Amino acid sequence: MTVDLTTEVDDLQTPAIPTVDVLENCVRTAMLAPSLHNSQPWLFRIGDGTVDVYADPDRRLDVLDPVGRELMISVGAAVFTLRVSLHAAGYLPSVAIFPAEDDPVLVARVSTTGQAAADPMIERLAAAVPHRHTNRSPFAGTAIPDAAIESMVEAAAEENARLVLADPASRDEILALSQEADRRLRAAEGYEQELARWTTQRIRRHDGVPPTATGPWDAMESMPIRDFGQLQSHLPRPTDEFEPHPTIMVLSTFGDDRTAWVTAGQALQRVLLTATWQNLATTPICQSVEVPEVRERLTDTSAGVWAQMVLRVGYGPATTATPRRLLADVLLPDSVCT
After folding, report:
1. Could you report the per-residue pLDDT of 148-168, keeping only the tens digit for each?
2. CA 77 to chain centroid
3. What does the CA dihedral 108, 336, 269, 305 come to, rounded to 10 degrees?
4. Distance between CA atoms of 232 and 228, rounded to whole angstroms?
5. Is the pLDDT of residue 104 over 80?
């Protein structure tokens, strides 16, 4: 399957091949994509005008993600970020998903097919990349403008996915299901050990969730914020009052195989970046789609759609970036390098 960022280009124009420096800078930007527990489960191979994007199975979370669905969503988010970065650098990217049948961890091959014309939307998305961070703090009670909601819905549709705003009744049901899922996960064997593996403490790391990215416990116990903080301190987790009527949106895809999961990741990142450049904060509520029985209740197979992610959106306080791995750690050794 090939997905292009559509831009009108002069058919007679000679295709331009980006330099290795440009491709390396675009990979650095792609590494800012979101991932489950900031596990960053991706690897890259830089070629002559191409970047191959691989899944790193060693970074899959066995308890939360036994089939690798969220791993593929994370890699898909990196693929979209790479597309945007290349486009913003002036090159028209073309993406082949799972281009080699005999290599299931090769998720995407991103090629450049020529020079891209300037596109204000792409420029906004690219500018938002370094400012997009998961925000686990309470949000303001301010209503989100309809135009902002519609822009996020359209962003998902651009990537062949569906984003639906939950009405009040659905919102309350989704939050209740998410709390149920959170309780099940916390009781699951190996869950706390896996969470501890990806929770950074005193040792400086280039992945995982640091103390600056954890959120308080909801005093009303309605918002399921994952409990990274308790693992980082012997003190009780701080509590705060979250917004009583959060804006909840459900991202779904038209299918539920590994290609659909990569689609979900690309759509998710486009939605998150669209929210970011409108000064909106976002929190993926992953628990609700990590327990199969709960995820099924959010899925409408009669309509041909499968729930892939639940998002909380609103106006939140400033938050900081989580750490990122070094470029040398994610480039495969046979990459073309300067």
Report:
1. 999 999 999 999 999 999 999
2. 5
3. 10
4. 7
5. yes
